[in-house]
Amino acid sequence: MAAPKKGRGSAGGQDRPGRALALILIAMVALTGGMFLADQPTPRLGIDLAGGTSITLEAKAEPGQESAVNKTNMDTAVQIMERRVNGLGVSEAEVQTQGKSNIIVNIPKGTDSAQAREQVGTTAKLYFRPVLTVAQGAPTPEPSASSTDKASPSATPNSSASDKATSPSDKPSPSATTQGRAVTGALKADSTPTPKASDAPTASAEEQAAAAKLQKRFEALDCSTKAGRSKAAQGSKATDTVIACEQDGSAKYVLGPAEVDGTDVKTAKAAINQNNGQWIVQMGFTGGGAKKFQKITGTLAQQQSPQNQFAIALDNEVVSAPSVSEALSADAEISGSFTQQSAEDLANVLSYGALPLSFKEQSVTTVTAALGGEQLKAGLIAGAIGLALVIIYLVAYYRGLAFIALLSLLVSGILTYTIMSLLGPAIGFALNLPAVCGAIVAIGITADSFIVYFERIRDEIREGRTLRPAVSRAWPRARRTILVSDFVSFLAAAVLFVVTVGKVQGFAFTLGLTTLLDVVVVFLFTKPVMTLLARKKFFASGHPWSGLDPKRLGAKPPLRRSRRVNAPTDPKEA
Asked: Any bridge partners for residue 243, and if so which?
């Protein structure tokens, strides 16, 4: 009696497929709703389909410093390159690491690819420059002394600067000519603490013209826009007096020639001040860098605000502008309203200036929008042909069971499409041509899982069982085969994703995703639907078009009848 009871209980669990179907329906509705809420109704297209330029860069370390190619430094390089590319006015550029030492830069159509290649392939420049003038990031309405006298609090560097640097200057900004004189004079040991207006006439006519031009550019500069920040960052040299923007655009600066180079920084790390518990950034300099830093800080300490500040400028964008109150030695620290994240970010920037990293261009692929559209069309046609062949085979061989397979393929397609659409804004996934190929291959993998289950059911019917017991008994064996097959496919996709770089990873990622979805669809949709349809007369009676006709399958007589025939009837034989 225990065995039948167990069988009924097991069947009862399997005869309630509504829960699984409800679960996958809820998942489909949630994913579809999320897709539209994220305003991403279609998957993002890669460069080879949408058109644009893809640049692959490989990080190279100086001999003996191979450990510099690590995740922290690569992430810092990605951030710098992203700022550079976005500074060109590109709104959808993608910069991401691939593997341990490669960076992929995808630039959409409509961008000057030559300029972009120059920007991303150049090593970042980090300089310490004296601050001559600071003002709010928006352009000055009217170039006059009254309009530029004071910098509003919003113009002051935010959490990246020190406490003293956060106070705006209450003194009138120097004139353009005085700014040029302040650069040279402020950096000499015998310079006076504050530039004098009487020094202006000593400048040559050429110097005065250049200074006036710089002043005009400074007043017109709008650091609140991406275009303005990009314009300010272009064409600067270490020996030039330059204008620069705060990274967030809240302030703009006139900066003197660089006195300390990023390569002079030996170490930089975020730490907690043991006295007050606040986050600080600690810097250490090389031997030559320490001398330069001590000299510039000693000179700046004699100046009035804002000319007692030095700007840490990365690619001519001001990352931090702390003030100086005394001459500093080889070891220094920057304190202020730091959070852990902002302190670590500044330390990474300072460390990057000393990184022995350079990037070698591995490959550059440029695809026109027309060619991308043709490739996408060809990929969709190939997918449609593959799907049509699968459907023809299923209908011809499995007949009514093909209806279940097609419904399962539809569910798998919906899940794949919505997830790919959501992964675009979530992790930057872009559908490229190899990814389309992976999706096409996945059609066969998914169909193979249905075929395994259908054949197991047919085997049970050939053994003489009716459909409902056959569906239940076939599932455990089919389940094992499906899981093993999908595991091998997923393992191959994972290995391919790890060991390859670039577009091939799109194929591996799509193949792995669809393999996982195949397991979900078979377990939560195909099996429950098969259980429900096994109760219908069309399938249960073995209709010739059901694909489960016992006569066509060569079924044996029922198992119970066979046992009765073979049983001994003569008591003597017993």
From this structure: 254
